[in-house]
Design brief:
165 residues, OB fold (Dihydrolipoamide Acetyltransferase, E2P), five-stranded mixed β-barrel, flat
């Protein structure tokens, strides 16, 4: 990538990290929340509850995608990160829906990675705005295969799951 301008390229998905595909945020302000499930306050946003003192506990949490993957262009292999808006195109559902599906079908995250491997995509990459971030961001994605199906559709078919289960 040259300079700070986003770059669009054709690529192939080489691998998808299935170990940590989402993170928790406040459903009101979308600030990142701790992943510690054992702590009962982990799903309550301290910021929203502080500002909303009369209605404590009103904020809840949701999950957003944060998918790390390797893509290959003609000349280079990149490790990139796809956040929620882009990952929804590839997965075909919300991170909460995928998380719930993965709880019922434990190998579905691994299988989703295998489903997406080899997919041809047109991606737009940008450099991270945060100085501590390591990976290029995928800011848009367009699957190039005419028969592309989001991962959740194939997973439902493989596991025999109906929509809504």
């Amino acid at each position: 990538m040259e300079g700070d301008k986003p770059t669009t390229l054709m690529c192939t998905v080489v691998a998808v990290d299935h170990t940590n595909f989402c993170y928790r945020v406040c459903s009101v302000c979308e600030r990142t929340l701790p992943d510690n499930i054992n702590n009962t306050t982990s799903s309550i946003c301290k910021y929203c509850n502080f500002n909303n003192a009369f209605n404590r506990g009103s904020s809840s949490s949701k999950r957003l995608f944060r998918v790390l993957m390797s893509i290959a262009s003609e000349t280079k292999v990149f490790v990139v990160i796809c956040f929620d808006r882009v990952a929804r195109v590839l997965f075909g559902c919300s991170a909460d829906e995928f998380f719930d599906f993965a709880k019922l079908h434990p190998l579905s995250a691994v299988t989703a990675g295998k489903i997406l491997e080899g997919e041809m995509l047109r991606v737009t990459l940008s450099k991270p705005k945060n100085g501590n971030a390591q990976h290029l961001r995928v800011v848009s994605v367009v699957p190039l295969r005419s028969g592309f199906r989001p991962a959740i559709e194939t997973l439902r078919e493989l596991y025999g799951a109906r929509v809504g289960t």
